[in-house]
Amino acid sequence: MVDTKTPGDKTLTMPTKTLTLKPRVEQGVVRQSFSHGRSKQVVVEKRGKRRLGGDEPAAPAAPEVAKKPAPAPAAPPRQQQSRPAPQQSRSGMVLRTLTEDERTARATALADARVREIEERKQAEIEAQRRAEQEKIEKAEREAAEARRKAEEERHRQEDEAKRKAETEAKKRFGDAEPAKKPAETSTTTTTAAPARPATTTTRTPTPAGRPPAVAAEAGDDDEAPRMIRRPGGPARPAPPPKQPAAKPGASKQRGRLTVVTALNADDVRERSIASFRRRTQRLKGHASNEPKEKLVREVVIPEVIAIQELANRMSERAVDVIRLLMKQGAMHKITDVIDADTAQLIAEELGHTVKRVAASDVEEGLFDVVDDSTDTEPRSPVVTVMGHVDHGKTSLLDALRHANVVSGEAGGITQHIGAYQVTSPESGKKITFIDTPGHAAFTAMRARGAKVTDIVVLVVAADDGVMPQTIEAINHAKAAGVPIIVAINKIDKPDAKPDRVRTDLLQHNVQVESMGGDVVDVEVSAKNKINLDKLLEMIALQAEILELKTNTQRPAEGTVIEAKLDRGRGPVATVLVQRGTLRVGDIIVAGAEMGRVRALISDQGETVQEAGPSVPVEVLGFNGPPEAGDRLAVVENEARARQITDYRAHQKREKSAASVSGMRGSLEQMMTQLKTSGRKEFPLIVKADVQGSLEAILGSLEKLGTDEVAARILHAGVGGISESDVTLAEGFNAVILGFSVRANKEAAAAAKRNGIEIRYYNIIYDLVDDIKKAMSGLLAPTLRETMLGNAQILEIFNISKVGKVAGCRVTDGTVERGANVRLIRDNVVVHEGKLSTLKRFKDEVKEVVAGQECGMAFENYTDMRAGDIIECYRVETIQRSL
Questions:
Q1: Is 608 annotated as a binding residue?
Q2: Model's pTM, two decimal places?
Q3: Which single residue of 139, 507, 731, 744 could bond 748 by disulfide (Cβ 3.0 to 4.6 Å)?
């Protein structure tokens, strides 16, 4: 296109002749020669590089371009013709004049282009300067390499010269012919090899037409033999091959269409297989597979004790390395040895791992979560524990509230089991849970357990009896649990009832009732005549409203085992008070060292229920074994977690029992030493009871009976009937079997009768404790008491044949009896203790001599008596002791 740049003419014309561009390409044919006489011709195109500006390399192409008709000189004539005849170019466009904005934009673009050009020129100058510096550095490196090469060649030349001189010297000295032949052969070979080089060079000189010399040289170098270099004054030696850059893995395995590079390198003629390439890679790598691998850093979980093998496995290390580190610390171990957590942590940290310490007790974490009171929105029934002294009417009061008769079912009319019941208040209709506890001294643990799970304590005090020891203990339990107390003064229907005396006695123990100006509620009741029972329930309900008891029934159940027993028909049965959540049939539960799945829930009325909410007492069936009374019950998500917890607790229980047994029994030497020094005797017993609470009370009472001289040794204690294994155990230790509210089965009774094992049955704990106390008292060593009889003074010593020396004495006070024990005192020092063998008055043997009379005395096996000695006569009495 040609712009006339005439303001008046707005037409643009196109030249009629077509413009063409000649491709700047030079073609040639390259002939390639291969082994076995094969050859190949390849067409090679050489494309010229377009040069910008007036560069010098573009000058040779100028003649060719000049031969073509240039469109630039022809343009002015066309423009001149088009001006007078604008009608010929009918296809032209009418152009408008440029506006001011367009001119400004064009000027701005031109200015930007100039600035960009200046910047590019500066950048090119910087690049050229950097390239010049780089070439200078490379040139210096080449010169240094050349100097090193020349020094190396000089050194080799001197070595060869020294070797040749040594060979010449050896030939002169020994005159051998063979050493002379070898240099001749060497020189012949050198001479032959010397002209070989020009021939080879002559062969390589002609190159195919159009092929660059460099390409021909490369092709020739592949087929030629190694070149020999001959220096003046030295033998010919092969020249070192030129250093080539190391080929990258996979570079020799190029496939695809034919290009200039592939044609020159002849890669498409003979290619290496994949297996060959792999073998080459392995050879290049060498022993890279034996290099140390990257170290893995792990988080190692370390329990309280861990075996070395297990520690090595958790760290992914070799056990040998772990043992080596332990040896450096001065400890010799085997792979199966167990080390403590501190040592294991040192080893793991030294090997670069991170350590997470865990304890065996961590399995119990999260079992009893901290209760979030914000979720407790539903009201629950209060739990009321009835406490007081024995025979103050606790169970009778509860029977009157429940309209039941529990007292008649207890042996001896005293409560020996803990019971839980629910009563509906007649006034408000709300349910109240009552827990009945034993009152006598043996059941302290039961009372403490009842106080821990309760909200309110009802302290029952008999109006005719007043405050008693167990009443004081119940007050202390309630204060320790931090629960409010309601005093129920019972038996006000008796004629000798004194309620005011009870209130006054309670003041001594910091229990101040409302009538005395305090804040403790007191109610006068009569369980026998059912007086003021509704008022007692009303006070309990009022106290419960003040406490604002709330719960969340949707959370997993938690509770406390109040009582546990082994029922012959139903298996292990536990009385559980649910404290939080809801316990349902099918839940997996854990209590102490026992676990199980809830098979059935039985209410206090004997009815089977499907679930039990908060503050509801139920009997739970489904435990693997009877749990301990007082254990906390929890619902877990699966059997694996339950088994993990119970295994840990059972292990702890075994360790504790083993420690107590070993501490009590010790080794054989310790037992013998103990018998020699203290003479402590043991009374072996096997105790079986109906429920866990009674067993606990019996064991506590028997433990209190022990003294420094005699103690009860409990070989086995359990819940359930007496079995044949119990009899076998008793036979081995010659023990007595005690059954409390249980009986022996047929096989156990027959085995006991056959082996002579005594089995005693009891229904009242007092009788059991009294009998054991008497039996243990029989093991006590009796007490020896000395009773003075009289004194006698020796007047004269007589020698009598066939008898020996006889002392003539006068009894000064008391009496002297034959056969009694005597002491011989000389100068207020006892010189002999023995027995009186002879007592005569005149010539007759007498039984005793009274004060003021004279007699003759002789001692058993002692004759050194002198006149003036004092004889003291006394009698030793044996008195049986009791606990």
A1: no
A2: 0.49
A3: 744
Query: Does the residue 5 lie in any domain?
Result: no
Task: Find the Cα–Cα–Cα–Cα dihedral 527, 531, 534, 536, rounded to 10°.
Answer: -60
- Whether residue 276 sits in one domain with residue 226: no
Contact 808, 796 (CB under 8 A): yes
Instruction: State CA 90 to chain mean position distance.
Output: 98
Q: Which residues of the chain have pLDDT under 70?
A: 1-26, 47-96, 175-271, 286-294, 360-363, 366, 368-376, 404-418, 427, 438-452, 660-680, 883
223 is in an annotated binding site: no
- 596 annotated ligand-binding residue: no
245 labelled as ligand-binding?
no
27 three-state secondary structure:
strand
The reply, when asked if residue 491 is annotated as ligand binding, is yes
Please tell me whether residues 350 and 427 are part of one structural domain.
no
pLDDT tens profile 378-408:
888 888 888 888 878 887 888 888 775 445 4
CATH, residue 867: 2.40.30.10
Check the annotation: does 389 bind a ligand.
yes
Q: Which domain holds residue 753?
A: 666-777
Number of domains in the chain: 8
Which pLDDT value is given to residue 678?
A: 54
Whether residue 686 sits in one domain with residue 753:
yes
Category of 808 on φ-ψ map: left (φ > 0), alpha (ψ -120 to 50) or beta: beta
Contact 752, 746 (CB under 8 A): no
418 and 275 within one domain: no
Residue 244 in any domain: the answer is: no
Beta bridge partners of 611: 584
439 annotated as a binding-site residue: yes
Check the annotation: does 391 bind a ligand.
Answer: yes
767 carries a ligand binding annotation: no
The verdict on whether residue 440 carries a ligand-binding annotation is yes
Does one domain contain both 411 and 503?
A: yes
CA angle 464, 469, 470 (to 5 degrees): 90
